Amino acid sequence: MTGRRRKKIVLLLLICVPALLWAVQAQAAFIDVGLGARPVGLGRAFVGLADDANAMLYNPAGLAHLERMELTSMYARLYPGIEDDKLHLGYVGVVKPVKGFGTLGIGATNLWADLYGENIFYLSYARKMSTGLSLGGSFKFLRWSADGYTDPEGLSELGHSWNGWTFDVGLLYSLRSEKLLRFMGADGLQLGLSVLNVNQPSTAKNGAEDAKLPIGFEGGLVYRRGNYKGLLSFSRRDDMSRLHFGQELDLLAQGSRSGSASFQIRAGAFKTLSEESGGELDFGCGFALRNALLDYAYVFPLALRDVGGCHKVSIGYTF
Length: 319
Fold this sequence. Notes:
This protein is mainly beta. Helix content is 11%, strand content 51%. The protein has one domain (3-148, 160-243).
């Protein structure tokens, strides 16, 4: 299957969403639709925070800071206003710190509809390198499959599938200058950087150049003060740039997310800075009690209002 033909199939799935054309053209497949209810509730400005099992999706270096084994999962029905074809998104991941070695993570995502499906399988590793610095990487096995179909003119298309791989790398650095922290009025400042899809594989069966998965660059900063976190990040993939914002406030403040109890409220947004209009407003909350984690996010699209906002729910557990 050529990249052009596969784009048509994806467009059939999203036929009622003309404003998504820019995303399909820019990335052909494996579109960034927002994974993990907590990162989504923070406007996806997660690259500089990356402090839970969702780190393998945004910045694998963050896994090095996890102290306990963590399991996470997510489900969302995307674009609920679309009636012709239901689009679903799922994710499951598990992270295990290994003393003296680093932190390992495995995960899988699934985007599926009636005729088309995409899967990404993750194998991640991260390690603390020096005071305040951690590095990490994720190997990703990619797969898409499309069922055969017959168009209104009677022309048939056989089913197709494709397998490939790519990898991401990332780093986190905690700024430890006391003068800077005092000047900023912060308890902590953290920088995060990640590079996604480093080898840029073509996702077409014939290796077409127009179906190359674009390399992605993300950088972000997290400001911590008491029970408050402020997040700011910038991302660029292909010719599309985004500015992301997020805030999280812990109202119970009785420990970390994996501690005794916590309840966070979140708000975030991102805005597309390229010629194509786009962006979203995000709201969410999270509750942790003992080892159980529950997160929720609501996504309000700024450019796709007719398809409706969507709900994303994550359930997790720490061991």
